[in-house]
Specification:
This is Late embryogenesis abundant family protein. InterPro entries: LEA_2. It comes from Lysobacter antibioticus. Pfam families: LEA_2. By secondary structure, the chain is of the alpha+beta class. The chain has a single domain, classed as Immunoglobulin-like, CATH 2.60.40. The strands form two sheets. Strands 3, 4, 5, 7 and 8 form a five-stranded antiparallel β-sheet that branches. A four-stranded antiparallel β-sheet has the order 6-2-1-9, with no helix packed on it. The longest helix has 14 residues. The relative contact order is 0.22.
């Protein structure tokens, strides 16, 4: 009986643990959509993902975009957007791509093929009620032509 009482007391104490855990996790960034405009420039929708258990304000990012092994350009923005815990938001960046990148996207779009890309750089974010932190981002994925949407890769 005494052992049962101790076990019950320990279980009750363990269940009284504090409130929500405030965890700051590294965010992620990826391309949600790339649209080729008539003038040859691109509208690049960058999806920023907050994996933290608290809201974070994303102040700026500076990401090198590569298509395959070729540098396409620099995605730079100061969105100053707040993203809730374990949520995401999209920021559109205008980009004048390199000549090699224009050719690579045109080839992928005309052939209906996927194209590998990578993002590498930094995101500055401020966790709720804390000081700004710089997170290093490295992401590799692929874009594919969006069916029925000419000039759009997703």
């Amino acid at each position: 009986m005494r052992l049962f009482g101790l076990a019950l007391a320990a279980a009750l104490l363990a269940s009284c643990g504090g409130g929500q855990v405030r965890r700051v996790s590294e965010p992620a960034a990826r391309i949600q959509q790339l649209t080729v405009r008539a003038n040859g420039s691109w509208a690049v929708e960058v999806r920023i993902e907050n994996f933290s258990s608290i809201p974070m304000r994303f102040d700026r990012f500076d990401l090198q975009l590569k298509l395959g092994e070729d540098a396409a350009g620099q995605l730079v923005a100061q969105p100053a957007v707040s993203i809730g815990p374990e949520s995401a938001d999209v920021v559109t960046v205008n980009l004048t791509p390199s000549g090699a990148a224009k050719i690579a996207i045109a080839d992928a779009l005309s052939g209906g093929r996927s194209l590998a890309y990578s993002l590498k750089g930094d995101i500055a974010a401020t966790p709720d009620e804390a000081k700004q932190r710089i997170f290093t981002i490295e992401r590799s994925s692929a874009l594919s032509p969006a069916p029925g949407l000419p000039g759009v890769m997703r």
